Amino acid sequence: MFGYIFKRMLYAIPILIGVNLITFVLFFMVNSPDDMARAQLGAKQVTPQMIEAWKVDKGYDKALFVNDKAEGIDKLTDTLFVQESLKLFSFNFGYSDANRDIGTEIKERMGPSLAIALPTFMIALITNISLALLLVLFRGSALDTGMMIVAVMIMSVSGLFYIIAGQVLFSKMWHWVPISGYEAGWSGIKFIILPVLIGVFAGIGSGVRWYRSIFLEQINQDYVRTARAKGLSELKVLFGHVLRNGMLPILTGVVVVIPTLFMGSLIMESFFGIPGLGSYTIDAINAQDFAIVKAMVFLGSVLYIIGLILTDISYTLFDPRVKL
User: Fold this and answer.
1) Which pTM does this prediction carry?
2) What is the pLDDT of residues 115-173, one digit of tens each?
């Protein structure tokens, strides 16, 4: 087990290097250090001396990938890419281009992101599986057909529409919940109810259809026919056999998603003014703050890799046929 985890961690290193390389290339294709300096200095009259001093202070005066002024191995190591990558791999996120401690801000913003993501994830999981089991129980009926049509209709509408429609109906017209904002503690529940409900509703269409297909694949297996032949009721077959054996593919999607919950929702947090990691990333992109962007992309990649490893490990717990 430990050997497998260690091997997967070694495999993750070139993946993270590649992700970091792509982040550098894409960001500096559309931004130059001079543009970043002007955006951060924010002064109407920014002199070349001010720009150069800012670049030296932040380390953006270094060559990006190849330093022609250096000798030997320093041509590659004395570069912005290598120096910043080494900091990331040691989880030293440093300071943003606006001189804010990135590590501290990530810790502070993780709570609001989880306050939205965890309830949405748990409620959506239970709701989607329950509805899928209901449709499998009444498969081929008018209820099954009607729900599938509704599910496709829900999937066909952009999630942005649900956000705007929810804010207009529940906040502007009916004044049931605040339109945006966030508070820590139990008093902040009124701020997260609407984002959670919208997140759950927007994902019902795809979630129910996916779980339904998993359960329908199991319902015609030999072990199900054997259980029916023994006289078990359809409900016992469904919950005692189909659900249990269908958990393996469900587990794949669930475990992979769990680490990424820490990253928050980019669109949801931005529209509802929630100070989470999703809005933190969007604000950094708008402000051309590369220090935050590369830190968030790297952190997201690490969490996703952790999710994949956890998925493989969980297979050994739920399926005795799988050995690491």
Assistant:
1) 0.81
2) 888 899 999 999 999 999 888 888 888 998 999 999 999 988 888 899 999 999 998 89
Regarding the domain delimited by 109-318, which CATH topology (the fold level of the hierarchy) does it fall under?
Answer: MetI-like fold (1.10.3720)
**8 A C-beta contact, residue 258 and residue 314:** no
* Helices of type H across the chain: 2-30, 33-41, 48-58, 74-77, 80-89, 102-137, 142-156, 159-166, 189-219, 222-229, 234-237, 243-245, 247-260, 266-272, 277-286, 290-318
- Cα–Cα distance, 312 to 238 (Å, whole number): 26
Contact 88, 295 (CB under 8 A): yes
Give the residue extent of every domain in the chain: 2-89, 109-318
| Exposure b/e, 145-174, CB count within 10 A at least 16 = b | eebeeebeebeeeeeeebbeebbeebbeee
